[in-house]
Amino acid sequence: MYLKSVGVLDYFDVMVCGPMVENGKPEPDIYLRACELLKLNPSECLALEDSPNGIISAYHAGCKPVMIPDLSQPDEEILCLLYKKLNRLDCVIDLLET
């Protein structure tokens, strides 16, 4: 509903939500299912997250975790798991272009 309301829903090829997997974050199930549906190896995928549990989930799935902090900044443990940390969501465009 939110993605549709801001006009970005059509940019997504697949969508996996919490109720669609057995275990929620920080378990890797949601990312593994998304990679399976996309027919991609997790190592080929960036995972955009704003929370420590999401970063842990993406990392254990084998994705490249990118944190865009919202309510909390990453601590040292989370920083070690990150592929990148960005200050704003629109910075992802530059990351994709490199």
Instruction: Tally the structural domains.
Output: 1
**Contiguous runs where pLDDT drops below 50 for at least 5 residues:** none
Number of helices: 5
User: Looking at the chains present, what oligomeric state does this protein adopt?
Assistant: single chain
What's the name of the CATH homologous superfamily?
HAD superfamily/HAD-like
Helix fraction by DSSP (H/I, runs of at least 4): 25-40%
Mean pLDDT level: 96
Brief synopsis:
The chain has 98 residues and is of the alpha/beta class.
Note down, in words, how this protein is organized.
The chain is of the alpha/beta class. The protein has one domain: HAD superfamily/HAD-like (Rossmann fold, 3-Layer(aba) Sandwich), CATH 3.40.50. 35% of the residues lie in helices and 10% in strands. The protein has five helices and three strands, in the order ααβαβαβα. A three-stranded parallel sheet has the order 1-2-3, with helices on one face. The longest helix has 10 residues. It is globular, with a radius of gyration of 13 Å. It starts with a helix and ends with a helix.
Please tag this protein with its features.
10% strand, 3-stranded parallel beta sheet, globular, 98 residues, alpha/beta, Rossmann fold, 5 helices
